[in-house]
Amino acid sequence: MLRGIGLNVKKFKNQDFFTLNIIVNRFYIRNKTSNLLNMDSCKNKECLTSQDKLLSKKYYRRAEHRIFVNRSLHLENVKFYGFDMDYTLAEYKSPQYENLGFNLTKERLVHKGYPQEILEFEYDPSFPVRGLWFDTLYGNLLKVDAYGNILVCVHGFEFLKHSQVYELYPNKFLTLDESRVYVLNTLFNLPETYLIACLIDFFTNSPQYAREKTGVRCGDLAMSFKSIFQDVRNAVDYVHIHGDLKKKTTENLDLYLKKDDRLPMFLSRIRESGAKLFILTNSDYNFTDKIMNYLFDFPYGAKPGEPHRNWKTYFDWIVVDAKKPLFFGEGTTLRQVDTRTGALKMGHHVGPLHEGLVYSGGSCDVFTELIGAKGKDVLYIGDHIFGDILKSKKIGGWRTFLIVPELVQELHVWTDKCQLFAQLQNLDIQLGDMYKDLDSSTKEKPDISKLRNAIRDVTHKMDLAYGMLGSLFRSGSRQTFFSSQVVRYADLYAASFLNLMYYPFCYMFRAPAMLMPHESTVAHEQRFTVDTPTIDRSRHSSTQRAFAERALSAACVAEMSSDEAVGPPDAADLKGERSVPHVRPETPQRLTHTHDEDCSDDDDLKHK
User: Fold this and answer.
1) Is 498:263 a contact under the CB 8 Å cutoff?
2) Which residues, at least 6 apart from 366, have a Cβ–Cβ distance to it below 8 Å?
3) Residue 142: which of 115, 125, 164, 112 has the closest Cα?
4) Cβ atoms 295, 309 nearer than 8 A
5) What is d(CA 301, CA 518) in angstroms, rounded to the nearest whole number?
6) Bridge partners for 171 per DSSP
7) Would you state the torsion angle of the CA atoms of residues 166, 169, 170, 173, taken in this order, to the nearest 10 degrees?
């Protein structure tokens, strides 16, 4: 056999066994590659046949009922369900609620000395989108991707051209520097985003103000874009904390708040499944009580025919004034709330948390210890990508469910404007055809200008279908910074937490495969064979190759022994006895990763 591959075994000594094995390996790989090439057509048929054998497409619930998965999560493993209140349990009506915040902030700015003319601004819900960065240096709203590459740049209401963007931002890139950039991530930021754009547009286009690179000037009065932003931020905080926003909201709850009679029933179902419930909100008790009383204001309880119940009876624990994201770090003092007055009781609460009582402040560490939870036992549901999701995931280790109300419109455009997506795909096919028969020897480049313009036109139509600043999740083919945050920190996301109603509490949310371009654009029926040492690294093949090497080495030893060229090898070498514990790792007999299945240690024990 050795002579059959052109080796003169007599020339090899014991110390040359390693060299011999390398030669044998190369011979094995060449033959293996040759066999693959011979089997190419056969394997293609096998791949096509296996695809034909697929039972059916995977079942998905209706789009409006769906919960989308970034990381696999087994509901059976969730022992605690936590809820934020604002924009989660309590969904505010849009644009009515944003319009209220917008008008109150305008009035506050005028009270602080801004021109009366700004009261003429009217809120336009088609303009702002969540997740924008505001560059306080140049006064621009930026839509960026996950890495800070600028996708859209708006100064006031003016969309800047490529040349203008490059002048301000070399390479169309900006680092997320908190001293310069403010991320407008929350639903509460929508009216603020629009008001900033209104003010920048007003001051840079009014004849009495001279425009400068980092602000405006009127005689001896200079206003930087950063100072304008700080004034807006202070006004927004005042309206939310000390102003009339909460008062006007509670005076007209029907106008500003959605009410869903499924809420009591669903929360009862969670408790019937054996899980515990808690509410964790930054709102104070008095506001929380008014909002929650309204949401549970039905003549019946969890089911028609049952008596009405106070909202507190649906939760095991209630925490207000949580001060997230501080709650997930050092936290604040945990105190009990006097529900008759809304005042805090004296002292630091150190005992167990009791059902029916209301607590204020605290920290994630203290809270989870008092309720007996471990990080992954908790599924926390909220709308704030930073305060609710990012910090609870990174610091608390909780599983996370992000509420994205904009998904209703996002899915509507995705399905209703399907012809635009089809046009974009066809244009991409045409672009590929332009380069199909060209290689590095090509001298004349094809004219793709018409195709590029057509792609821009279709992409622009797609963006406008979402709003003036496009989709929350993408700009053309590029995913936004907000999108990357959702993927990174939210295990699940949906338009409403009530979509959980359409899933059993034993449901396995399994994340779809995250394909890279070399996986998503290469069809399985294609056969990729190249003569390279790294192409065949599967453990099954390497095990077979190891057996072949041992057989060849044994034959080599036998031939050399019969010729008396060298002395017989040590018996320990033939038996495979060595001083090291393992010459090579053993092939795993079962799955080594668990992230797709959301396994627990108990599950591992069951399968042993």
Assistant:
1) yes
2) 331, 334
3) 164
4) no
5) 54
6) none
7) -110
Per the annotation, the verdict on 602 as an active-site residue is: no
Domains and CATH numbers, the chain: 3-47+535-573 (no CATH), 68-91+259-403 (3.40.50.1000), 96-253 (no CATH)
Structural contact between residues 69 and 510, judged by C-beta atoms closer than 8 angstroms: yes
588 versus 174: the higher-pLDDT residue is: 174
User: What per-residue confidence (pLDDT) applies to 519?
Assistant: 85
Rounded CA separation 71/263 (Å): 26
Contact 235, 108 (CB under 8 A): yes
Q: Which runs of E-coded beta strand occur in 334-479? A: 335-336, 358-360, 378-382, 399-403, 474-475, 478-479
Active-site residue identified among 16, 40, 52, 84? 84
293: phi then psi, degrees, rounded to nearest 5: -60, -40
Distance CA 358, CA 285 (A): 8
Cα–Cα dist 471/464, whole Å: 8
State how far the alpha carbon of 226 is from the alpha carbons of 18, 215, 513, in Å. Answer: 69, 8, 43
DSSP assignment string, 442-496? --SPP--HHHHHHHHHHHHHHHHHH-TT--SSEETTEEBHHHHHHHHH-SEEES-
Which of 586, 561, 587 has its CA nearest to residue 573? 561
* Token pair of 406 as six digits: 């904009």
Model confidence at 492: pLDDT above 90: yes
Question: What is the pairing mode between strands 358-360 and 317-320?
Answer: parallel
Encode 238-292 in three state secondary structure. HHHHCCCHHHHHHHCHHHHECCCCHHHHHHHHHHHCCCEEEEECCCCHHHHHHHH
Pick the catalytic residue from 52, 86, 220, 433: 86
- Predicted local distance difference test score (pLDDT) of residue 9: 47
**From CA 512, how far away is CA 519, in angstroms rounded?**
13
Residue 107 has pLDDT above 60, yes or no: yes
Strand intervals (E) in 31-102 = 68-69, 73-74, 80-83
Q: Please state the separation of Cα 171 from the chain's center in Å.
A: 26
Q: Which amino acid is at 116?
A: Q
470: left (phi > 0), else alpha (psi -120 to 50), else beta?
A: left
- Quote the percentage of the chain above a pLDDT of 90: 69
Half-sphere exposure of 511 (CA within 13 A, CB side): 18
Residue 84 annotated among the catalytic residues of the structure: yes
